[in-house]
């Protein structure tokens, strides 16, 4: 079976398993800090996807948030970048607004992206160069918008950081309004659908954006870090995505005027680390 169809099928099945057990008690653990949670469902979902991919395609490689492939250093061959539950805090607190996110890359080239909004049974998917869909419906090319008449999304945390507030506060202030959804993958999906015009955040890991990246690019979004550079799919990155016009406005009028500060933050926090 074509990799794309296989991926679609195992993601939909994994989502159904989560939906069917949504009322069961979950085991919650903390990771790097008290607000960084992981549940047995995050781990079981990654394990399930890992086993299915490995038994069908033993030569493929998998980088997953919950432990698989942490030694992967290059993009050769077929690489699956997997976030079994993106939006774990939403999963724990709301039992909705979370997604399974997978990006598949072949020798470093984009192949396919999937963001599955599990509780709403909405599969955002894209085949690089061929288009993007929400379930069966093709997603439309994005229309240009400007910040003052746009809804954008970001994580409010960045407004509270002394160094970053000088960049983030004016953006939030000058937008029509700002949303915080709590799932980076769904933030990408929302931009792809055109219900938000841009998404900006200071730090995402490869599994947060690998799937969404391919979907938004298929509808004409511009995807860079906050210095206007291409994302490296094996490293943590800052993120700036949006339709062409708003991306240009945000990059040139809000981010690049702070280039020395952003360069410093990127060098200290991201480059060479993931
Ligand atoms: C998180 C979510 C959240 C984003 C964080 C991510 P997780 O992923 O995408 O929206 O702000 O940076 O870590 O941990 O729920 O998979
Ligand atoms: Ca996590
Ligand atoms: Ca994530
Ligand atoms: Ca996750």
Describe, in short, the structure shown:
The protein has 274 residues and is of the alpha+beta class. The chain contains eight helices and 14 strands.
Major β-sheet, in short? 7 strands, mixed
Give the DSSP E fraction (strand runs of 2 or more residues). Answer: 25-35%
Topology-level CATH name of the largest domain: Fructose-1,6-Bisphosphatase, Chain A, domain 1
CATH architecture of the largest domain: 2-Layer Sandwich
Give the structural class.
Answer: alpha+beta
Which descriptor suits the 3D outline? Answer: globular
Radius of gyration: 18 Å
Q: What is the number of helices?
A: 8
Helix percent reads: 25-40%
Strand arrangement, largest sheet? 3-4-5-6-7-8-9
- Succession of helices and strands: HEEHEEHEEEEEEHEHEHEEHH
The small molecules bound here are:
D-MYO-inositol-1-phosphate, calcium ion
Protein name: inositol-phosphate phosphatase
Pfam family, one: Inositol_P
InterPro entries: Inositol_monoP_metal-BS, Inositol_monophosphatase-like, Inositol_monophosphatase_CS
EC number: 3.1.3.25
């Amino acid at each position: 079976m074509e990799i794309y169809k296989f991926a679609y099928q195992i993601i939909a099945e994994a989502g159904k398993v989560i939906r069917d057990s949504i009322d069961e008690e979950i085991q919650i653990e903390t990771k790097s800090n008290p607000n960084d949670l992981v549940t047995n469902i995050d781990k079981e979902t990654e394990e399930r996807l890992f086993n299915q991919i490995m038994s069908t395609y033993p030569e493929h490689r998998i980088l997953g948030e919950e432990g698989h492939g942490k030694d992967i250093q290059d993009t050769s061959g077929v690489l699956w970048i997997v976030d079994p539950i993106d939006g774990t805090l939403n999963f724990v607190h709301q039992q909705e607004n979370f997604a399974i996110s997978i990006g598949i890359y072949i020798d470093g080239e984009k192949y396919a992206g999937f963001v599955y909004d599990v509780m709403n049974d909405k599969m955002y998917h894209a085949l690089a160069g061929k288009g993007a869909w929400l379930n069966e419906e093709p997603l439309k090319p994005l229309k240009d918008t400007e910040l003052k008449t746009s809804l954008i999304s970001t994580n409010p945390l960045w407004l509270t950081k002394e160094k970053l507030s000088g960049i983030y506060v004016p953006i939030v202030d000058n937008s029509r309004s700002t949303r915080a959804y709590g799932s980076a993958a769904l933030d990408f999906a929302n931009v792809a659908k055109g219900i938000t015009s841009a998404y900006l955040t200071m730090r995402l890991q490869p599994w947060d954006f690998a799937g969404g990246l391919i979907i938004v690019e298929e509808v004409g979004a511009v995807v860079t870090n906050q210095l206007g550079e291409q994302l490296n799919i094996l490293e943590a990155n800052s993120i700036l995505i949006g339709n062409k016009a708003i991306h240009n406005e945000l990059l040139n009028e809000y981010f690049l005027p702070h280039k020395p500060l952003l360069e410093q933050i990127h060098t200290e926090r991201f480059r060479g680390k993931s």
